[in-house]
From TrEMBL:
Residue ranges of every copy of the ABC transporter domain listed in the record: 364-599
Cell location: Cell membrane
Annotated ranges, domain ABC transmembrane type-1: 123-294
Top-level taxonomic group: Bacteria
Alphabetical list of Pfam families matching this protein: ABC_tran (PF00005)
Keyword field: ATP-binding, Membrane, Nucleotide-binding, Transmembrane, Transmembrane helix
Membrane-spanning parts: 24-45, 65-91, 137-158, 164-184
Lineage: Bacteria, Bacillati, Actinomycetota, Actinomycetes, Kitasatosporales
GO molecular function, a single term: ATP binding
Protein name per the record: ABC transporter ATP-binding protein/permease
Acidic residues: bias regions: 336-347
Main localization, broad class: membrane
Disordered: annotated segments: 322-361
Membrane topology of the entry: Multi-pass membrane protein
Amino acid sequence: MTGGGAWGRVAPEGRLFLRGRGRVVGRLAAWSLLESAHTFLGGYGVARALDDGFLAGRTATGLGWLAAAGAGALIGGFALRGVFAGLADLVEPLRDGLVRRAVRQALDRAVADPAGAGDTGAVSRLTQQTEMARDSFAGLVLTARSFVFTAVGALVGMAALAPVLLLVVLPPLLLGVAAFLATLRPLAAVQRRSLDTDEALADRVGKLAEGLRDIVACGGRTAVEARAEPLIAAQERLARTLAGWAALRTLALGTAGRLPVIALLAATPWLLGRGITAGTLAGGLTYLVQALLPALNSLMTALGSAGTRLLVVLERFSAPVPPDPAGHGTLKPEPEPEPEPEPEPEPEPLSSPRPVRPRSEAAAELRGVTFAYGPGAAPVLDGLDLLVRPGEHLAVVGPSGIGKSTLTALLAGMLSPDAGSVLVAGAAARRETGSTGPDPRRTLLPQQAYVFTGTVRENLTHLAVAPGTPEPGDARVRRAVSALGLEELVARLGGLDAGVSPRLLSRGESQQLALAAAYLSPAPLLLLDEATCHLDPAAEERAERALADRPGTLVVVAHRVSSAARADRVLVLDGTRAVCGTHEELPARSPLYGDLVGRWNQAADD
Ligand SMILES: Nc1ncnc2c1ncn2[C@@H]1O[C@H](COP(=O)(O)OP(=O)(O)OP(=O)(O)O)[C@@H](O)[C@H]1O
């Protein structure tokens, strides 16, 4: 929406509001007229005091005229009292009307979307924004009225002193005011867009912050950055535009405020030549410097700040209430760029130009790894050796808190060992600081699945998006969906290009989407840290088999014995001891594993 559009919606309502309040406006105008008398007397008194009094040697007359000007100031003060009383009658009904409207909007939204998060902006509209509108409106009425009646008093005064003064003063004054007024609409439009973009950015960054750990762990930085960047760039552009308009406004203010004074001073010899007296000149300057310019200054400041603020706030109140199942409020961010068309032909999984491990080396290796969370803490892993073969499916089991997640974090390069080394594809596991984008060597899926607001397709392919690598094509995405058995879920969500709202998904459904994303990831090593814990045994089996069949190595932190039984080998963590072997041979070598299997079988028999 543009500022012009906002104005178009707000202006008729504003006219309607004022039309119903003719008497209040009339009372305000009457009090303000008294202010004009004050302005008139200010300049006229000075001119007469000089010409008829002090310069003519009649000091008493001069003092008399100055006293008259002073009395004008008293009248002005009295008038202002009446103005404030009238102002309350105009401003309070506006506030009441806005409060009523905010409540109606919140109710309408709740009725339109009973399952939604509700109108989250209603409280702000009811409190802060209503007060903001009231203050801005009061300030605007006060200054606009003051300017109009001061200008009337000053211009009538100049005309009474010598109409030729108007010839000199009016052109620069009108030029500056016109230039200033011309900046108002574009400025409001930019401010409105800037506010929208700022809110959209805050919304997006807030959501990203919630899943930051998972984004880093899953190597989703590039995909996430690609989505936030257009908003940041738009905000930067708007800030520059705003600064440009603000500079123009300052220039206009300077023209209207200072140029008439300079013009009057520059025209002094010409004016004196046409019989204008020193007192008349002093009176003209008094009108400009003491009345017109301060009033103009206040008006422009109020219009520039309170005016545009009022426009933006009122526009929010007059916004229709759209059904918003995602609960994102009524504001629209800058449109995001259309996604690039999908390149064809599509590459096969793992055949991307990224680093591919040589077949001969270990997929991952721990050599004498010791790790503790802190210098004084007991080590979680102590001298652990482990070699994960290329293409192997390894399950890690052990009691809660034994160090399974710590092990996957070391393999994911998120932690560094205190002693020993961790290698992935033959190189140190630690990710280089500053590296961005999906990790080309491995993908870690934590228990808390990362699903973001975007399309189903984006949620499935974000781990496969990297600079220089084409996105997976439709056929590959559908293969992943079918391998994981997600056809029904994808259909229910509305297809690959339908939007996903993470809060509407169950934890199991989120995990299934994340698993499909891992399936499409080209990284040769997949690390699943209880990433199937919200799936039923059948869905878990299907997912694990699909991921194990995918070219590459799979390490799974298993929370069911059935999951371990499917793996090529099982690593049992038991205290600081670790035993590794096949599901069949392990019960004889690890009492803990034997116990686990025994209890599992018994539960199955029951
Ligand atoms: N960030 C941390 N700071 C300090 N201690 C930690 C931290 N993370 C884990 N620990 C501790 O390290 C030990 C191993 O934790 P870890 O999460 O690796 O175990 P786990 O086997 O994965 O447990 P679970 O099966 O419950 O997830 C636990 O005692 C845990 O309390």
